[in-house]
Amino acid sequence: MKQKLHILTLGVANLDRAVEFYENGLGWKRSDKSTGDMVIYPLGGIALAIYPVGELAEDVTLSYERPGFAGVTLSYNAADRHEVDRVLALAARAGGKIVKPAQDVFWGGYSGYFQDPDGHVFEVAYNPFWGFDENGDLVL
User: Fold this and answer.
1) Quick one: DSSP state of residue 115?
2) DSSP state, 80?
3) DSSP states of 23-44 as a string?
4) Contact 133/139 with Cβ under 8 angstroms?
């Protein structure tokens, strides 16, 4: 298997509410490849899909149990500390819940966390030790 992921799919309780959050709240644009209950957002080489959690559980053949914290975060790396603050404020205005306000962190950066309306946890971080290429992709 190649060391690569192409699509991350989040199961959502209410697809319309999730679309409202990502599109009208965060300003994301959906792919024209979205179909029916599968809404896909291109993220520059990878995509985030949202899909009704019951249908996703049925497809996976496992029962869904809403976790408190599933041990997974999705991370958005910001260009600077101010962008971290702006993105967290945007998420809060869109209906997200700030679970950890932005702050200086032990590894030398600045980050905070929010949950989308379905409880998926996103980190918004500025890491002064990493950069971006001309396409805005993370350079490690």
Assistant:
1) E
2) S
3) IIIS-----TT-BTTBEEEE-S
4) yes
Give the angle subtended at the CA of 65 by the CAs of 61 and 67, to the nearest 5°.
Answer: 130
3-state SS, residue 56: helix
* Per-residue model confidence as pLDDT tens digits over 43-85: 988 999 999 999 999 999 988 887 788 888 999 999 999 999 9
3-state secondary structure 71-139: CCEEEEECCCHHHHHHHHHHHHHCCCEEEEEEEECCCCCEEEEEECCCCCEEEEEECCCCEECCCCCEE
Question: What digits encode the pLDDT tens for the residues 106-129?
Answer: 999 999 999 999 999 999 999 999
Place of tokens 């959690």: 53
Give the type of residue at 38.
M
